[in-house]
Amino acid sequence: MGVFGNAAGSADGLLHRGLWALLLLLSVAIYGSHAPLLTLCKVDGAIPFSSTSVVVLVELTKLLLSVLSLLPGAREPLPAALSWRHAAPFALSALLYAANNNLVVHMQLFMDPSTFQVLSNLKIVSTALLYSLLLRRRLGPRRWLALLLLLAAGVTYSCGGLRGHGDTAGTRLHVTPVGLLLLSVYCLISGLSAVYTEAILKSQALPLGLQNIFLYFFGVLLNLMGSLWTGMEGGFLEGFSPWVLLVVFSQALNGLIMSVVMKHSSNITRLFIISCSILVNALLSVALLNLQLTLLFFVAVACIGLAVHLYYGVT
Length: 315
Prior knowledge:
Elements lengths: L1 H40 L9 H18 L15 H4 L1 H19 L5 H7 L3 H12 L5 H19 L3 E2 L13 H27 L4 H23 L11 H23 L2 H23 L2 E2 L1 H19 L2
């Protein structure tokens, strides 16, 4: 009987690891496909839809999927006693995420998109620092080196990992002092929102689906208020196409996956997922957008491989 019990436990463990690996790979694929999908959404070289509408629909889709996960028959039973104290902490998470999304838009006024793509990789460092300080997780020199390699990979790839046919000029950074200040705030809020959300998810003995409902309810509410405050030109769904709907669904699905990652793993895992998505982004850009890989792409891949080895493979 013990033999069969051990065999069943081993099979369950393999199934669990397989599902976890599939979830991480799916997230890598979604992250990597986001930019190419946005390019396919363009009409005459311009984005035809409101980014505010997309954000609201993404939050609403995540909320609906979270509600479906708690319908009768769900595996995780609801706790007997719930109060506003369970939901209130997620209001700050939603506020931080909403502030960061809006900050990204305003930062474009003080730097060009290429500069933002390069410098935004600094959020790897800010997230790791806040993860270590606020959650009191000691990373150690080897793991810090791994995270710095992730930073190097992101910067290297952003500086010219892909090239269009006939392009010869390298990346030139242009940013104002105000842009640098906003970038610092962006990196701080990006790291803080992720680490704070991880802390809440792990501190509450609640089903993840219910925690997601709290988070995305506030997300929908804040983003709807923001869209009404700023006003929108045209209709809410103006410029939408099947590609845009695919972006909405994929981003909603990835948001739910990130909740699982933060609940059962950590934000460091999330950083590795984002960095590994460079591979998918590059392959799709070559296949769909007719871009070319450069030497910097292979340098970035080498940095990521070494970072994974240092963080997870060396004992």
